[in-house]
Amino acid sequence: MSTPWRAPTAASAALAAALGTGAWWAWCAWRRQRRQDGPWFLRGVTILDDLSPSGYREVDVLLGLDGRIDLVCASARRPPGAQVIDGSRKLLLPGFVNAHTHSSQMLGRGLVSPLPLDLWILQMLAVTGAAMEKFDSRAQAAYVAALFCGVECLMSGCTALQDHCFVLSFAEAEAACKAYKDLGLRVFFAPMLNDDKVLYENYVPRSGDAAARNARGERGGLGPEGSWRTEVGASDEAKCRASLALWEECAQKLHDPENGVNIVIGPVSLYSCSAKLLKGATELRKKYQLNGHTHVLESRGQKLEAARRFGANGGSAVSFLESTGFLEVPGTSTSLAHCCWLEEWEMQIIAQHHAAVVHNPVSNLRLGSGVCHVRRNLCNDVTVSLGVDGAMSSDGLAALGQGIQGQASPLPERCEAFGGDFYRQSLADFVPFLDLSVWDAQRAKNHCRVQGEACFVVQIQDGQIYILDEKTGFQSRNRLTMQMLQRVAAKFGPLPDAEFVVDTSDGYSHVEGPIFVIAKFPSSPGGILYPDFSSYAWPESECPSEAVGSHVWARAAARISSRASGWQEKSEQLFWRGAATSSYRKQVVPDIAALPFANVSVMTWVVGSAGQRQVVSSGDNSCVPIDEWCQHKYLANLPGHTMALALKYRLLCGSVVVSSPLMYHEWYYSQLKDQEHFVSVDFTWSSAADVLAALRGNPGLAEGIGARAREWAESHLTEDGFDCYWLQLIRLAQQHFPAPQLSSASLPIEAVALGHGHHALEGPLEVPQRQRMDVITVIPARAKDVELMDYARSTWLGVQLPGFTHRHFFIMAAADPDIGMLGHEEDLLLVDCPHGYRQLMQKMVMAYRLLLDRFEVKFFIRADVDSVLPLEFLLPLLPRAANGQAVVPLPASNCGDLGRWRMPSIGHLQCQIECAMDRQCHYFQVDSAGDCTTFTTCTPMKSRSAAVFKYALRASGDLELTENHDRPFILGTILHGNKVLINDSYNPQWNNLEYSQDLGLSVYPPYPEASGYAMSADIAAFLASVGMASLAQLQWKAWAIEDTALGTILAGLSFDLLQMPTEDMTEAIKLACLLSTLSSVDYRQWLTAKEALKLASEGGYAAMGMQGAGKIEVGCVADVTLWDLTAMSLLPRGDPASLLVLGRPQQGPGQAGSALHSSFVRGRRVVSGGLPLTCNLRRLRETLWRHSEPRATGAAAMDPLARPSAEMQRAAEVEYRGAVGLDGSEGPRQLSSHLALRTIWDYAGACLPSRA
């Protein structure tokens, strides 16, 4: 059914005819380009209304092309040309302003130890420098950091931010401003500059009794020769001039309010800037009419220092700032960050000068700085806004911790007894897979089905364990692992519903997926470690002299404990027996055997027909039962193919385990400590002689290591330990993995254990009957492309050929904001994925899944909404390609000398492509040197030897197709190696290099007559098997594999880092609301949710000097956000403002909690479906991953050149503790009357009338 605003098909066709083909496509491209610019008509949105009984009302809103709100009223008519968004069930709010942040800290978040601000800042500087050094230049680092900061602000509802950015050059400032401009985000950019000679030295407060301490001879301070400072640190005249010059250059070259870039003069603080610098900054503000921004009274230390430093101003930082003229410059706005330690009369000074306070609740809590008294400021007519502050003072780690620690119920008491550290590895392993999507889980199952050599899928439902897709693998590992699962179920009752993949091979050096593995490199981005089969039994390791079943773990452990000798009874030998399962063992064992007192040799063994290990060597190389290993004081531990499963046995002996580096980790390795549970040597064992000599020379040390190892192993490596760890893994899988999906191939674990692998479940699941279809054409589209869809329907999509069943579908994202304006045409296929071009791959893969479920289809044709495909020519070629008759090898060895042209050494693939591009080429040949010749006709000759092929796609007449000869193929592509093949068809879009962002495939043979490509259904099924989270976030790398008949595809995926947001404005709003409860016992003084939203929007714009902004009113700037009231976090229906503020609206795009729908800045849409439209998130994440590395917090994360010396850090801490009275001294008295030192209940005061 057509909608009123849709152009009729006839009109579209008439316009195309009038304009001509080229102009028609140009016109369509222009329409697409302007789509995000508006004007936007938001129909039926909900807005806040204090005068309405419900507090809300529904209106229509028009965002004009001039960047302002042009219309707010009920039941308005859509203006001509306006794009429509259905606002029903959506809340329209003014955009939030992050009024104080530091983008330069984005690259080092999470790397500074918990410290008070005055000490934290010394570490922050060095960490930031080290993080920026990972980039090619500081300017590049500044751009990436600003982009990162801006993206996170956008995704939490911000439309503007104030970046108090630490820069050293104009190039850095220019790069950061460019990032915000690229994002379309309104920025107030304040280069954060200072002129203290020793950077931030004055941030450390001086002690009030410094002179007395010096007189007593106390040392350890920051002054000369360890004295305590009595004077303010000096300023640097040259630095002052340079800072003023940089501010002025930014003002002259970057200030561009019309395009969203506003330069702000931003001194660091009153402690690292001289009065001269502040006065010079004031003059620049007057000259260029620029806003000002700085830090004021953030910490208790700053309040103390102000009392000593600004004595001429009554000890007030605010009065001193007032004296410099910086507090108020007519025609501009001044904002002051933090203001946690203001006296009430200082608030009145701020109000008199029309300045604003920026409350930063997250960082104030992180650094223990104090709390800004919002209500008291408001009572004194101070404008209050909100900020998130820098990423290194609001690291944003809480959501991650809550996500992984949450459990439906505690573990059984016998499992809790092991303590939290016992399960630490399991929590870390699940971090990359929190809330795993169905499609990523399917990708792991595909690994087992297609690639796994020793794996199976575990499905637990209603207490019954099922096994799916078992690949037997090596030895009896699968069977023993399943028996462990049965033991866990018997011990702990019915297990929770869960589904996961278990791999029983030796392990992986690199694993990415959510697969349970025995061992992995610690740096692997994926893989979940589990107690392996040998924790149940290890029959293959039994010696021929041992009884069958002697290596069941419980028996082996009991026998080792009962026969383990006392330390004095053990021999001095270094003992090891094992098989040569790795080249490493073969290389290193002879060197170890040559060590003094070494009893080391390799056994020769084979695996018998029944799967048991059979030792065929004798004498010194014979098999030694495990319990006899314990007769020796020193046991060597050498990894096999990956790890050494026998390490757990060695730890039980009470001997010293001397181990090669533990490159591969098992599930319990993170709990083992070098020199406490084992002793490590270098990889080649060259240090072993010295290590063993030291141990033998200190027998008490050696005996202690062996005893601690045995004590730990006996208390942790038990049946209960193994089973409890498995239970923890299953619970985590239930919590974060999709629910199990049983199929007819799922087998009860009991049936598998009995060897009945061919039996299916009783009553197989019904599979819906699929409709048969020869060809389906899939066309990704947007609701806005309605004219193009109508044109395609009326022209080339209407072609039907005898003998072919053919359908087409336009693939639409359900998150498309304009989807409600479409009718109910049968050729529209909606898929549940984010909207936008960058989600194209994700959208198409979901479409293939849905279509393959509904249709039994042979071929897919992938076209674009502005394609014009000659289907009458293309369709007959598909069976030919499937029969391997697209490129046909001929028996001829040469086509003669009448070639069209020759090209040396280009190889088969390029030769085939060149033939495809030449319409007169029907044959080509490639000799052994890779020389290529193409021909129109082929006259077979045998004078030279070459491989000759017929390019049969141009052959006339029908071919006799062989039954059941279906080959996987992709036929026709626009690009090869990201280069345009040809430009002589209907579609000028062939010149559009953005096609490389589609599938990124380079396949052959190219089909230049089409603007899309065709493929067999099995290729579509391959694409459909890839996980959704991967497609949303990861980069495709695909390439063609040469085949004499046709091309096939291999695809690789590379993961990148997912991070929790730190620039989350919704979190700052929530904390501002909650922290107000600490400022007064009078609950009438607490902030309401709507008041907190007003601080974040109207307050933020007012602080930036944009009076009248931050409102949904005609004439206000069109910086607005649209929130989905049907999001899980805003349900059930009630007070959406309260849920938005006090709930958790930002749980990630596409997740149940995500509520942000769209954001508009200056009337232009910059966010859709919760994701920014102006940034390639995959590339940003890849860039951040490449330019960072795992680092510990503190000194390890710092730039060595900028790192404060250990002596300086100690001295700073000594003076700080003395200044604030933490060293046992009498402490400061200057704050005895300050509000922040009174109890919070004493601070209650009425300044507003009572509220009902």
TrEMBL record:
- Give coiled-coil spans as residue ranges: none
Glycosyl transferase CAP10 domain spans which residues?
494-737
Is Hydrolase among the key words of this record?
Answer: yes
GO molecular function terms here?
A: hydrolase activity, acting on carbon-nitrogen (but not peptide) bonds
* Entry keyword annotation includes DNA damage: no
Cite the InterPro entries for this sequence: Amidohydro-rel, CAP10, Metal-dep_hydrolase_composite, Metal_Hydrolase, MTA/SAH_deaminase
Q: What keywords tag this UniProt record? A: Hydrolase
Domain of life per record? Eukaryota
Pfam families given in the database record:
Amidohydro_1, Glyco_transf_90
Where is the chain membrane-spanning? none
- Which PANTHER family would you find in this protein's record? AMIDOHYDROLASE-RELATED DOMAIN-CONTAINING PROTEIN, AMINOHYDROLASE SSNA-RELATED
What protein am I looking at? Answer: 5'-deoxyadenosine deaminase (5'-dA deaminase) (5'-methylthioadenosine deaminase) (MTA deaminase) (Adenosine deaminase) (S-adenosylhomocysteine deaminase ) (SAH deaminase)
